[in-house]
Write a structure and sequence with these properties.
Shape: globular
Largest sheet: none
Distance between the termini: 35 Å
CATH topology: Four Helix Bundle (Hemerythrin (Met), subunit A)
Number of domains: 1
Strand content: under 5%
CATH class: Mainly Alpha
Length: 243
Protein backbone atom coordinates (compact mmCIF):
# COMPACT_ATOMS: atom_id res chain seq x y z
CA UNK A 1 0.00 0.00 0.00
CA UNK A 2 1.33 3.43 -0.89
CA UNK A 3 2.22 5.83 1.87
CA UNK A 4 -0.44 8.43 2.72
CA UNK A 5 1.09 11.03 5.07
CA UNK A 6 -2.26 12.45 6.11
CA UNK A 7 -2.95 12.51 9.84
CA UNK A 8 -6.59 12.21 10.73
CA UNK A 9 -7.66 9.41 8.39
CA UNK A 10 -7.26 5.66 8.80
CA UNK A 11 -6.37 5.15 5.13
CA UNK A 12 -2.58 4.92 5.29
CA UNK A 13 0.37 2.57 5.60
CA UNK A 14 0.37 2.66 9.41
CA UNK A 15 -2.62 0.34 9.66
CA UNK A 16 -1.26 -1.78 6.82
CA UNK A 17 2.03 -2.15 8.66
CA UNK A 18 0.27 -3.28 11.81
CA UNK A 19 -1.86 -5.93 10.10
CA UNK A 20 1.13 -7.14 8.11
CA UNK A 21 3.00 -7.67 11.34
CA UNK A 22 0.09 -9.66 12.76
CA UNK A 23 0.33 -12.19 9.97
CA UNK A 24 4.06 -12.91 10.04
CA UNK A 25 6.52 -13.72 12.71
CA UNK A 26 10.17 -14.74 12.90
CA UNK A 27 9.53 -16.72 16.05
CA UNK A 28 9.28 -20.53 15.94
CA UNK A 29 5.76 -20.28 17.31
CA UNK A 30 4.45 -19.05 14.01
CA UNK A 31 2.04 -16.15 13.43
CA UNK A 32 1.19 -13.78 16.24
CA UNK A 33 -2.18 -14.18 17.91
CA UNK A 34 -4.44 -11.35 18.99
CA UNK A 35 -3.76 -12.12 22.66
CA UNK A 36 0.00 -11.91 22.12
CA UNK A 37 -0.40 -8.49 20.49
CA UNK A 38 -2.61 -7.39 23.37
CA UNK A 39 0.05 -8.37 25.88
CA UNK A 40 2.75 -6.57 23.90
CA UNK A 41 0.62 -3.49 23.28
CA UNK A 42 2.07 -0.28 24.71
CA UNK A 43 0.35 1.69 27.43
CA UNK A 44 -0.26 4.56 25.00
CA UNK A 45 -2.09 2.25 22.57
CA UNK A 46 -4.16 0.75 25.38
CA UNK A 47 -5.26 4.24 26.42
CA UNK A 48 -6.23 5.02 22.82
CA UNK A 49 -8.32 1.85 22.59
CA UNK A 50 -9.90 2.66 25.96
CA UNK A 51 -10.99 6.00 24.50
CA UNK A 52 -12.82 4.17 21.72
CA UNK A 53 -14.44 1.81 24.23
CA UNK A 54 -15.73 4.78 26.25
CA UNK A 55 -17.74 6.07 23.28
CA UNK A 56 -20.68 3.63 23.62
CA UNK A 57 -20.71 4.29 27.38
CA UNK A 58 -21.12 8.01 26.70
CA UNK A 59 -23.87 7.38 24.15
CA UNK A 60 -25.68 5.09 26.58
CA UNK A 61 -25.84 7.56 29.46
CA UNK A 62 -26.60 10.50 27.17
CA UNK A 63 -29.54 8.49 25.84
CA UNK A 64 -30.66 7.59 29.36
CA UNK A 65 -30.67 11.27 30.30
CA UNK A 66 -32.71 12.12 27.22
CA UNK A 67 -35.20 9.38 28.06
CA UNK A 68 -35.55 10.64 31.64
CA UNK A 69 -36.45 14.09 30.30
CA UNK A 70 -38.94 12.58 27.86
CA UNK A 71 -40.58 10.61 30.65
CA UNK A 72 -40.94 13.72 32.78
CA UNK A 73 -38.59 12.36 35.46
CA UNK A 74 -35.31 14.09 34.68
CA UNK A 75 -32.33 12.36 36.26
CA UNK A 76 -29.26 14.66 36.22
CA UNK A 77 -27.05 11.76 37.32
CA UNK A 78 -27.14 10.39 33.79
CA UNK A 79 -25.92 13.71 32.40
CA UNK A 80 -23.14 13.89 34.98
CA UNK A 81 -21.93 10.42 34.06
CA UNK A 82 -22.07 11.25 30.33
CA UNK A 83 -20.12 14.44 31.00
CA UNK A 84 -17.44 12.67 33.04
CA UNK A 85 -17.06 9.89 30.48
CA UNK A 86 -16.70 12.36 27.62
CA UNK A 87 -14.23 14.46 29.62
CA UNK A 88 -12.10 11.43 30.54
CA UNK A 89 -12.09 10.23 26.93
CA UNK A 90 -11.10 13.70 25.69
CA UNK A 91 -8.30 14.08 28.23
CA UNK A 92 -6.96 10.63 27.38
CA UNK A 93 -6.02 12.02 23.97
CA UNK A 94 -3.40 14.25 25.55
CA UNK A 95 -2.33 11.49 27.93
CA UNK A 96 -1.63 8.82 25.32
CA UNK A 97 0.23 11.35 23.19
CA UNK A 98 2.41 12.40 26.11
CA UNK A 99 3.17 8.79 27.08
CA UNK A 100 4.01 7.87 23.49
CA UNK A 101 6.48 10.74 23.21
CA UNK A 102 7.90 10.62 26.73
CA UNK A 103 8.52 6.86 26.85
CA UNK A 104 9.10 6.26 23.13
CA UNK A 105 5.93 4.17 22.75
CA UNK A 106 4.92 5.35 19.30
CA UNK A 107 3.71 2.36 17.25
CA UNK A 108 2.00 1.88 13.87
CA UNK A 109 -1.16 0.79 15.68
CA UNK A 110 -1.17 3.80 17.98
CA UNK A 111 -0.49 6.27 15.17
CA UNK A 112 -3.34 4.78 13.14
CA UNK A 113 -5.90 4.53 15.94
CA UNK A 114 -5.30 7.88 17.64
CA UNK A 115 -6.87 10.12 14.94
CA UNK A 116 -9.64 7.58 14.42
CA UNK A 117 -10.48 7.61 18.13
CA UNK A 118 -10.50 11.42 18.19
CA UNK A 119 -12.84 11.64 15.22
CA UNK A 120 -15.19 8.94 16.50
CA UNK A 121 -15.42 10.60 19.92
CA UNK A 122 -16.25 14.01 18.48
CA UNK A 123 -18.76 12.61 15.99
CA UNK A 124 -20.45 10.57 18.71
CA UNK A 125 -20.90 13.71 20.77
CA UNK A 126 -22.34 15.75 17.92
CA UNK A 127 -24.64 13.04 16.57
CA UNK A 128 -25.88 11.91 20.00
CA UNK A 129 -26.69 15.45 21.10
CA UNK A 130 -28.48 16.03 17.80
CA UNK A 131 -30.82 13.02 17.86
CA UNK A 132 -31.48 12.82 21.61
CA UNK A 133 -33.85 15.27 23.28
CA UNK A 134 -31.85 17.27 25.80
CA UNK A 135 -33.06 20.65 27.03
CA UNK A 136 -30.51 22.21 24.69
CA UNK A 137 -29.00 20.30 21.79
CA UNK A 138 -27.87 20.52 18.20
CA UNK A 139 -30.06 20.80 15.10
CA UNK A 140 -29.98 17.73 12.88
CA UNK A 141 -28.51 19.71 10.00
CA UNK A 142 -25.37 20.36 12.05
CA UNK A 143 -24.67 16.65 12.50
CA UNK A 144 -25.42 15.99 8.82
CA UNK A 145 -23.03 18.77 7.79
CA UNK A 146 -20.18 17.46 9.96
CA UNK A 147 -20.64 13.88 8.73
CA UNK A 148 -20.89 15.00 5.08
CA UNK A 149 -17.65 16.94 5.36
CA UNK A 150 -15.77 13.97 6.82
CA UNK A 151 -17.20 11.59 4.22
CA UNK A 152 -16.17 14.03 1.48
CA UNK A 153 -12.60 14.23 2.76
CA UNK A 154 -12.18 10.48 3.22
CA UNK A 155 -13.66 9.83 -0.23
CA UNK A 156 -11.28 12.38 -1.72
CA UNK A 157 -8.30 10.76 0.00
CA UNK A 158 -9.25 7.37 -1.41
CA UNK A 159 -9.73 8.75 -4.94
CA UNK A 160 -6.38 10.52 -4.88
CA UNK A 161 -4.67 7.46 -3.41
CA UNK A 162 -5.91 5.14 -6.15
CA UNK A 163 -5.37 7.60 -9.02
CA UNK A 164 -2.40 9.78 -8.10
CA UNK A 165 -0.74 7.36 -5.70
CA UNK A 166 0.22 9.76 -2.92
CA UNK A 167 -1.74 12.25 -0.85
CA UNK A 168 0.22 15.39 0.00
CA UNK A 169 -2.06 17.00 2.50
CA UNK A 170 -1.89 17.87 6.18
CA UNK A 171 -4.12 19.44 8.84
CA UNK A 172 -5.22 22.98 7.97
CA UNK A 173 -5.47 25.79 10.51
CA UNK A 174 -9.13 26.15 9.61
CA UNK A 175 -9.62 22.44 10.30
CA UNK A 176 -8.01 22.77 13.73
CA UNK A 177 -10.21 25.76 14.59
CA UNK A 178 -13.22 23.84 13.29
CA UNK A 179 -12.43 20.91 15.60
CA UNK A 180 -12.02 23.26 18.55
CA UNK A 181 -15.38 24.93 17.87
CA UNK A 182 -17.15 21.58 17.43
CA UNK A 183 -15.69 20.33 20.70
CA UNK A 184 -16.70 23.57 22.41
CA UNK A 185 -20.29 23.06 21.23
CA UNK A 186 -20.38 19.55 22.69
CA UNK A 187 -18.92 20.68 26.01
CA UNK A 188 -21.39 23.58 26.18
CA UNK A 189 -24.37 21.25 25.90
CA UNK A 190 -22.93 18.67 28.30
CA UNK A 191 -22.24 21.33 30.93
CA UNK A 192 -25.84 22.53 30.55
CA UNK A 193 -25.00 26.21 30.91
CA UNK A 194 -28.50 27.31 29.99
CA UNK A 195 -31.82 26.54 31.65
CA UNK A 196 -34.80 25.38 29.62
CA UNK A 197 -36.33 28.88 29.68
CA UNK A 198 -33.19 30.65 28.46
CA UNK A 199 -32.48 30.92 24.77
CA UNK A 200 -28.92 29.59 24.22
CA UNK A 201 -27.81 32.50 22.05
CA UNK A 202 -24.09 31.90 22.59
CA UNK A 203 -24.52 28.23 21.73
CA UNK A 204 -26.28 29.24 18.51
CA UNK A 205 -23.31 31.47 17.67
CA UNK A 206 -20.88 28.61 18.39
CA UNK A 207 -22.87 26.23 16.21
CA UNK A 208 -23.00 28.60 13.25
CA UNK A 209 -19.30 29.43 13.59
CA UNK A 210 -18.46 25.73 13.74
CA UNK A 211 -20.70 25.10 10.72
CA UNK A 212 -19.01 27.87 8.75
CA UNK A 213 -15.55 26.49 9.53
CA UNK A 214 -16.76 22.99 8.67
CA UNK A 215 -17.80 24.17 5.21
CA UNK A 216 -14.66 26.28 4.73
CA UNK A 217 -12.21 23.55 5.74
CA UNK A 218 -14.09 21.03 3.63
CA UNK A 219 -13.86 23.36 0.64
CA UNK A 220 -10.12 23.87 1.22
CA UNK A 221 -9.48 20.13 1.38
CA UNK A 222 -11.54 19.66 -1.78
CA UNK A 223 -9.62 22.41 -3.59
CA UNK A 224 -6.29 20.94 -2.55
CA UNK A 225 -7.36 17.49 -3.69
CA UNK A 226 -8.46 18.82 -7.09
CA UNK A 227 -5.15 20.68 -7.42
CA UNK A 228 -3.21 17.47 -6.89
CA UNK A 229 -5.41 15.70 -9.43
CA UNK A 230 -4.77 18.45 -11.99
CA UNK A 231 -1.02 18.39 -11.39
CA UNK A 232 -0.96 14.64 -11.92
CA UNK A 233 -2.90 15.01 -15.17
CA UNK A 234 -5.83 12.89 -14.06
CA UNK A 235 -8.39 15.62 -14.73
CA UNK A 236 -7.33 15.95 -18.39
CA UNK A 237 -8.75 13.83 -21.23
CA UNK A 238 -6.81 10.65 -21.98
CA UNK A 239 -4.69 11.51 -25.03
CA UNK A 240 -4.26 7.84 -25.85
CA UNK A 241 -7.91 7.63 -26.85
CA UNK A 242 -7.77 10.73 -29.04
CA UNK A 243 -8.24 10.08 -32.73
Amino acid sequence: MRNLPLRGFPVDSRMSEFWTNTKTSDSPGGPHTFSSHLRKMTLASKITISRILLIPVFILFASYYSRSIHDGQENPSFRYVALVVFAVASLSDALDGYIARRFNQSTPLGRALDPVADKLLLLSGIVTLSVTKWHVGFPIWFAVLVIARDVLIITGVLIIHFTVGKVRMGPLITSKICTFLQLSCVCWVLLDFWSIETRPLLLDILIYCAAALTVLSGYQYLSEGLRQMRESGHTSPDNKNAS
